[in-house]
Amino acid sequence: MEQVSGAPVPARVGEMYRTPRPHPWRPTLGYETIQVKPLPSQIVTNELCDPCYTPSGMATHPLKFPNLVTGFHRNPAHAARTALYTRYTPWDWHDNQIRLQNEVDATRHYSDELRDRSVRLIREAEEKIKIGQINSSRLLRDKIMDITYWERELAAELDKVIVENAKMQECMKDLQRAIQELEAPLHITQECLYHREARKGNELIHDEAEQALLEEVEIVRNSQKKLESFTDKCTDQLSNGRAVQNEIELDISNKNSSLGIDTMAHQINNQTKGLENYGGIEKYDPTIIEDDSGVSTSNDIVKKSQMLRINSRNLQDEIAQATNEVFQEIWRAWNNTNNALTKRVAEILPVKNKLLILLESIQREIFSVKRNEELLKKAVNDKSSALKVAHTRLEARTHRPQTELCCDTAQHRMVHEVHTIKGMIDDFNERLQECEAHHQQLLLVRNNLESDLKAKVDALFIDREKVMGLRRSYPIKTTIKF
Question: Where is this region: Disordered (predicted)?
């Protein structure tokens, strides 16, 4: 396709090739090889080109513009025709005289009217200035009265805010003191739990006293969280109170400065010394708020302060009520735990006394069994002598000669006697073994009773001496209102 306008496009030399597409997010592009001609071979139609900076070989064709000055051709006939038209007639001269007379009369009449209007304008200006000064003085006096009134109101509100901030600060200290006082019952309750962990045996049970102690720990921790939640509120309230106090103090300071300036401005009159002209002062507007916004700002500050004091009193009442409720709940939990410990001690005492009685009876049984064992051993020793006699007789009869070595009635009797004595000894040994086994059983029972008794004595000592010894006095000194 043939080019119509613009710089010539470089001729295409090669073919266009497609780029590879190694990634799905990378598009496929194309590139081709072209031939670029040097700049001097391009035709530049610009007459402003500096020849010093024109490259060698650059073809330039300057532009031609028409001459607007020499293009208008003049002739002498034109000048003659122009000279004929510059003459006036007599009628034009008389008309010019009449016009000048009328112009003088009109000017004199206008001068008289101008003088009258000027005098009237001066009088009106003096009257307006006087009325304006009177109105300005009256408005300044009203402004001074408003500033004085709001200054008194702000001063009174400042005193109330300072008192309320002091009360809030004292409430904050009482709250921190109350939170600190909760550490004592929490520490005592945890120590009681640690002491009760030293119990042994079947005394290490999850009884009512331990449940009461765990519940007391939970109550104290919840109370701490409940009171600590008011700390941030107190901090925010004190911060807001201090901010309002600063706003009131700043507004009072601004009111004092404005009062002095307005009082000075109210006392200025036309005879005041040191008056100056400040050109363009009326165009300068240094105000930053709308008219009467100063009064509304002071009113808003007073309302904000009043609302803040109401919130402060409500927060103080809420903190006092929450603190009283927390201490009442902790007091009830403390009493419930003490009652549970007293009940537990009352349960352990009769069981301990009963164990002492059982231990005493078991001790008597052990003594009886031991004596029975000795009797059985003595009986076995006694029957051993009779057995030896029977054995000796039988051994002696084994030495009988020939036909005399017969199994006669005496032989049968002695053999029967030996069997009878052996049977008795076996019975005695069996009964002795039973007594010894029963003796071991009694010793085991006594050992169990002694271990149980020791565990109960230790548990009684822990609950009555260690735990209840820590809980004899209530650690919180704050007065509770019921």
Answer: 1-20
Query: Which tokens go with 142?
Result: 């009203």
CB atoms within 10 A of CB 431: 16
Question: Of all helices (H) and strands (E), which one includes residue 18?
Answer: strand 17-18
Q: Are residues 338 and 386 in the same domain?
A: no
Listed residue (332, 267, 359) closest to 482, CA to CA: 332
Range of the structural domain that residue 393 is part of: 356-398+407-470
Sign of the torsion formed by the C-alpha atoms of 281, 282, 284 and 285: positive
Cα–Cα distance between 74 and 77 in angstroms, integer?
A: 9
Mean pLDDT for the chain?
79
For the chain, the distance separating the N- and C-terminal CA atoms, rounded to the nearest angstrom, is 107
Q: State if pTM tops 0.90.
A: no
DSSP-based three-state secondary structure for 32: coil
Task: Give me the number of domains the chain comprises.
Answer: 2
Residue 403 corresponds to which amino acid?
A: T
Question: Is residue 215 within 8 Å of residue 333, measured between CB atoms?
Answer: yes
Instruction: Flag whether 197 is in a domain.
Output: yes
- Same-domain status, 229 and 305: yes
Using N-to-C axis directions, what is the helix angle for 183-196 and 208-267, rounded to 10°? Answer: 160
Q: Are 47 and 63 in contact (CB under 8 A)?
A: yes
What value does the CA radius of gyration of the chain take, rounded to a whole number of Å? 64
Residue type, 146: D
From residue 424, alpha-carbon distances to 324, 416, 417, 436 in Å are 85, 12, 10, 18
CB 223 within 8 A of CB 182: yes
Partners of 44 in beta bridges: 60
Is residue 302 within 8 A of residue 251, CB to CB? The reply is no
Q: Is the pLDDT of residue 308 over 90?
A: yes
Q: Please report whether residue 93 resides in a domain.
A: no
- Strand-pair partners of 18: 30
User: Would you say residue 444 lies in a domain?
Assistant: yes
Q: Per residue in 93-123, is it b (16+ CB within 10 Å) or e — as a string?
A: eeeeeeeeeeeeeeeeeeeeeeeeeeeeeee
Q: For residue 127, what are the CA distances in angstroms to 121, 122, 179?
A: 10, 9, 75
Residue 243: CATH number of its domain: 1.20.1260
Confidence of residue 482 (pLDDT cuts 50, 70, 90): very low
Give the DSSP H/E element, type plus range, for residue 43: strand 43-44
415: phi then psi, degrees, rounded to nearest 5: -65, -45
pLDDT tens per residue, range 115-156: 898 899 899 988 988 898 888 888 888 888 988 898 899 999
